[in-house]
Design goal:
The protein is an all-alpha fold. It is 70% helix and 0% strand. The model has no long low-confidence stretch (mean pLDDT 85).
């Protein structure tokens, strides 16, 4: 971690968290620099799959391989019952939001550190870098979603009419993902060791999130607390209930998850804006 005393002409550390943030002016400035987000996302997407034999097809490989592993381990060994929904379809629908979340943290969370050369040369809101990483992850998720259509056709299973809840659930997922990504992108600049811990944290998070197993596995009395700690759980459950089972989301879980997601979004954005004046010096 870099101390303020190590940076020439750095502002006093006690002023670091007292910077006033005009939310309206900050969002207006971000909108004016939206083309930078597009340019950075396009650059990163091209570099990500440059000279790769499968190209953008790698966006499909990870969730498909995990789906196959989960089908063997959880369906055949752990005997998880998802009837009448085929387990492969059940698991893949859970993997899509998780893969988007973990990829956003990997790309967006490390974006300020990996673009440190640009931070001191380019004037722009610093949030454009993590947002570009999230945009790349979103494009990967769109590509990976194509496999979902193949699975529906292969199993002869159609999305249910309650799929109209998907846009609302998607908004909650985006709010949580963007908030956490903005938060850790600023924190990682100051606490470098956390970058090494991120892969391990995501691996544990995959097992602790109802991607391969139903949220009903959690004791009923602990589900609301779980929704507050991990909003992705109710989000994934909401997708499954709406798309696969023809049911409404569990509002008792999704509403607390939505509140926590908004808190993460606001807190992540405000923290990054408060830290951004020193990011170029520290990164």
């Amino acid at each position: 971690m870099t101390n303020a005393a190590d940076i020439p002409d750095a502002p006093p550390s006690e002023l670091l968290y007292k910077r006033r943030i005009g939310l309206r002016s900050a969002l207006t400035e971000l909108w004016r620099h939206r083309e930078i987000v597009r340019t950075l996302a396009e650059r990163d997407f091209r570099a990500r799959y440059k000279q790769a034999l499968l190209g953008a097809g790698w966006a499909i490989v990870t969730p498909v391989v995990l789906m196959l592993v989960f089908t063997v381990v959880f369906k055949r060994v752990a005997k998880i019952d998802t009837d009448p929904v085929p387990y492969a379809l059940y698991a893949y629908l859970g993997l899509l939001p998780w893969t988007f979340f973990s990829s956003s943290l990997n790309l967006g969370g490390l974006s300020l550190v990996s673009n440190n050369a640009l931070l001191s040369k380019l004037y722009c809101p610093r949030e454009v870098f993590p947002l570009a990483g999230i945009a790349v992850s979103a494009l990967d998720a769109v590509i990976a979603t194509s496999v979902l259509g193949v699975l529906f056709a292969a199993y002869g299973y159609a999305p249910r009419s309650t799929s109209y809840w998907v846009p609302l659930i998607l908004l909650i997922q985006l709010a949580f993902t963007v908030g956490v990504t903005l938060f850790i992108s600023g924190v990682f600049v100051y606490f470098r060791d956390l970058r090494q811990a991120l892969p391990m944290i995501l691996q544990l998070g995959l097992l602790a999130t109802p991607v391969a197993w139903p949220i009903e596995t959690i004791p009923e009395g602990a589900r609301i607390a779980y929704a507050i700690v991990n909003p992705l759980g109710p989000v994934i459950d909401g997708y499954r209930r709406a798309v696969l089972y023809g049911k409404s989301p569990q509002w008792s879980l999704l509403v607390p998850a939505a509140v926590v997601a908004v808190v993460w979004l606001v807190a992540g954005y405000l923290l990054l804006k408060r830290l951004e004046t020193r990011l170029a010096d520290v990164a």
